[in-house]
Amino acid sequence: MARLGNLLAAASAIWLxxxxxxxxxxxxxxPFPDLIDVTIDDLASGLSSxxxxxxxxxxxxxxxxxxxxPILHAVxxxxxxxxxxxxxxxxxxxxxxxxxxxxxxxxxxxxxxxxADKMNNTAGSFALxxxxxxxxxxxxxxxxxxxxxxxxxxxxxxxxxxxxxxSSNGWTAIGGQTYGAYYPNMxxxxxxxxxxxxxxxxxxxxxxxxxxxxxxxxxSQKGNLVGIKPTVGLTSRYLVxxxxxxxxxxxxxxxxxxxxxxxLQAIAGRDRHDNYTSAIPFDCDKMPDYVAALxxxxxxxxxxxxxxxxxxxxxxxTEMAAFWAAVKTMQDAGATIVSANFTVPSPNTTSIVLGADxxxxxxxxxxxxxxxxxxxxxxADVRAFTRSFPAEQFPDRNTATWDAALALGYNNTDVRxxxxxxxxxxFGGEGGMLGAIARNGLDALxxxxxxxxxxxxxxxxxxxxxxxxxxxxxWPVTRSSRGLVTSGPKxxxxxxxxxxxxxxxTLLKLAYAYEQKTLTRVNGPKPYIVPNVEIGDFAGF
Length: 541
Ligand SMILES: *[C@@H]1O[C@H](CO)[C@@H](O)[C@H](O)[C@H]1NC(C)=O
Ligand SMILES: *[C@@H]1O[C@H](CO)[C@@H](O)[C@H](O)[C@H]1NC(C)=O
Ligand SMILES: *[C@@H]1O[C@H](CO)[C@@H](O)[C@H](O)[C@H]1NC(C)=O
Ligand SMILES: *[C@@H]1O[C@H](CO)[C@@H](O)[C@H](O)[C@H]1NC(C)=O
Ligand SMILES: *[C@@H]1O[C@H](CO)[C@@H](O)[C@H](O)[C@H]1NC(C)=O
Ligand SMILES: *[C@@H]1O[C@H](CO)[C@@H](O)[C@H](O)[C@H]1NC(C)=O
Ligand SMILES: CC(=O)N[C@H]1CO[C@H](CO)[C@@H](O)[C@@H]1O
Prior knowledge:
Layout (H helix, E strand, L loop, with lengths): L3 H12 L10 E2 L2 E2 L8 H9 L5 H19 L2 E4 L3 H13 L11 E5 L27 H8 L3 E6 L3 H4 L9 E2 L3 E2 L15 H9 L4 E6 L5 H6 L3 E4 L19 E6 L2 H11 L35 E4 L10 H16 L3 E4 L13 H16 L10 H10 L11 H8 L7 H14 L4 H7 L4 E5 L4 H7 L3 E8 L7 E2 L5 E3 L4 E7 L5 H15 L1 H4 L18
Parallel strand pairs: 4-5, 4-8, 11-12, 11-13
Antiparallel strand pairs: 1-2, 3-5, 6-7, 8-10, 9-10, 9-14, 13-17, 14-17, 15-16
The chain binds 2-acetamido-2-deoxy-beta-D-glucopyranose (7 copies).
């Protein structure tokens, strides 16, 4: 039973704008980490020792969502079956069965990853509200098999930021505007906005996001998080609302490298429903062990490249100073730092690949629906719906991205698409990061996360981002066109390790070593808004 007084006190503290960081939390009198800091290992040991149950955990997370969602709009839906699933997993555990490393652990999903249950999968659009899929997305099936509780769906930039040229990060017609937790009215970045915010303040253990170009790494950095943007094809996209089959990928957004690695392990692997997964170079039953790869001394002997000529001359001096300090930290930890310039320092990244893919890939997703309440079968249908449905806020938020995709007049089966795709592969490959890695025999490249996404995106290569630093407490506030705070006091930024395709094991090893040396997240400033309901408010009553 929730302690109502406690909940109300917490809610009013938040309304008054008081930072309410709980500390020294206990469960049944025993010290236990706050849910903003808790790890999978912490939860697994609390669950297996009987300190609390998954039902307690779901109750605590649902109460936390209720505390902050009226302000942050990070969560779109809570799974109405979450408590029943938790009770079932508690019963299995009591009977001696654990399904896997995520047994009884609540995870949130970006609202473009479909589940065959009572929840919707909308990309934040009323066009898809009420639509049904034939089965769980492969990712979700794998999470359930590992024992995870799908706690709910997170808000996002609508259509994963593939609709409008003048919308805002984290806005959807269904969920409204998501805000980041490190400063009032903060731009959460996107498009996995709600996943980043939820993971940053512990509305679940972690969340999944998706990335076409920057949509995991960018909101991860704004949430002071570890984000893995896997190689395209390492994780299945079946029944994930697409932008681009050539660039889309799904990965974890978590608070520690180890938690992110555990979740990646659960979701990686081949899927006959997604042909790109057949590029996985490992034997089916011999996927890498991403958790065993973690090594606190993993930087010793590593060759790390810095693409000097691809770093932006306009990069923030605060971020760049932190970046060069991080490079020095890696060197001090035994890494060899190599100058690894790109042969094409600033490519023309104007490309029709996403637009042409979207025309084909969206139609393919819609054709999978077993119930399609608004009868949308193509991009043209979705565009017509959006422009005529008032809550979609057209024309204040336009459909310029779709207008351009449709104006192409062709899709990704056309030879003109092939030309552009090859050009992209050159910019990301020989002319960009993959060429620099191969020529210099590197384990990874490093870049500030705000500059890392584009080159990896066009070639489907992986990135692991983790906390690098924060803007100083007296930093002036800057705002985007719709008034969101884009930078300001204590707003976090990240460091990216970029690697060859399917090199996640190496990237995670390096990121873990850097994390353990620096502990930037735990030592840094806390969000301005943190729910203060903890497991102890539920366990033992
Ligand atoms: C999904 O959308 C339908 C239609 O609006 C709504 O009735 C239902 O409550 C939603 N599901 C959840 C879990 O919120
Ligand atoms: C995968 O490729 C095969 C052969 O090209 C094709 O028949 C099949 O439809 C593809 N499957 C998907 C899910 O795209
Ligand atoms: C790499 O690029 C930087 C910046 O453009 C330049 O100063 C440096 O000389 C280049 N290094 C090599 C080895 O070409
Ligand atoms: C950039 O690429 C696009 C797409 O191929 C092309 O239309 C445009 O002319 C190019 N721009 C420049 C400056 O080369
Ligand atoms: C893609 O283009 C081909 C060739 O014009 C066409 O036959 C096909 O219907 C198009 N597919 C979609 C989803 O628009
Ligand atoms: C967004 O763009 C459309 C035109 O494409 C315009 O009508 C609308 O006013 C713009 N909204 C804002 C807030 O600028
Ligand atoms: C779970 C939850 O709080 N959902 C909310 C998402 O945002 C919309 C619009 O702001 C609310 O109506 C929902 O209640």
